[in-house]
């Protein structure tokens, strides 16, 4: 999961604290990484962000099309969404066997 933020964004600070809690919650998983990118200092042509903060979940199934997670959702809702996509990946792997 990637948090795209800017230093001047007030709500980015609150979101960063939520992302830290999520990272702590999911720390035992080897297949989930948490990252932050300062959009004011870094640019990437494929990173299409129109609002800050933005939370993007890159799944193993489709890394080119990240899932935009709502920063207005509760921590529990974001965790549920992450779990749903992790389970979908596990189910896809099982189907491939």
Write up this protein.
The chain has 97 residues and is of the alpha+beta class. The protein has one domain: Glutaredoxin. The protein has helices at residues 10-25, 75-96, and strands spanning 2-5, 35-38, 54-57, 67-69. A 4-stranded mixed beta sheet has the order 2-1-3-4, with helices on one face. Helix 1 links the parallel strand 1 (2-5) and strand 2. The radius of gyration is 14 Å and the shape is globular. The chain starts with a strand and ends with a helix. The model is unreliable at 91-97 (pLDDT under 50). This is Protein disulfide isomerase-like 1-6. Belongs to the protein disulfide isomerase family. GO terms for molecular function: protein disulfide isomerase activity. One of its GO terms (biological process) is protein folding. Keywords: Isomerase.
Count of distinct strands: 4
Structural class: alpha+beta
Calculate the terminal CA-CA distance, rounded to whole Å.
27 Å
Shape: globular
Mean pLDDT: 86
Task: Look up the CATH topology.
Answer: Glutaredoxin
In the CATH hierarchy, what is the class? Alpha Beta
Q: Record the strand order, biggest sheet.
A: 2-1-3-4
Largest sheet: 4 strands, mixed
Order of helices and strands: EHEEEH
* Proportion of helical residues: 25-40%
Looking at this structure, what is the CATH superfamily? Glutaredoxin
Rg from Cα: 14 Å
Counting DSSP H or I runs of 4 or more residues, the number of helices is 2
């Amino acid at each position: 999961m990637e948090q795209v933020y800017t230093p001047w964004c007030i709500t980015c600070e609150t979101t960063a604290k939520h992302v830290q809690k999520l990272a702590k919650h999911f720390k035992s998983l080897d297949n989930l990484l948490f990252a932050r990118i300062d959009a004011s200092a870094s640019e990437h042509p494929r990173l299409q962000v129109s609002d800050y903060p933005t939370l993007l979940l890159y799944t193993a199934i489709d890394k080119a099309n990240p899932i935009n997670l709502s920063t207005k959702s509760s921590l529990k809702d974001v965790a549920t969404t992450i779990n749903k996509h992790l389970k979908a990946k596990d189910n896809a792997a099982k189907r491939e066997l």
